[in-house]
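Escalated from tier 1: fe (ii) ion holo job.
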Amino acid sequence: MTERLEMYRCEICGNLVEVILDGAGELVCCGEPMTLLHARNNDSEGLEKHVPVFDEIQDNKTKIRVGSIPHPMVNEHYVMFIEAVSKDNNETHLKYLYPADEPEMVTDLKNIAAREFCNIHGLWEGTND
Ligand SMILES: [Fe+2]
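Tier 2 regenerated the structure:
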């Protein structure tokens, strides 16, 4: 059983998938069940560089930064994507990032949570309330 917006990873090949619509089946990759990722948050070690933080900016937009101390953005260690998710889970906005990019994105979405994926430290989340 999968639920909308869950993320699953293959421990063998590294495939990372997001569920678009709920389903009854089990996700399998490389012949093995995929692992459901649980985002870490403010209770986790390393939060200063990983938990998304939110700034209201001009034109009613929100800038999402990773994190309160900027996360490294080098080949060996970087934020691979940031995803803003409306609190009713009906809208998302995903931005892929690459080494040397700023670890941030701007979105029009309101009342959001954000998730980010670090190539070393995995999935993290934060909310703007
Ligand atoms: Fe990291």
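DSSP finds no helices and twelve strands in the chain.
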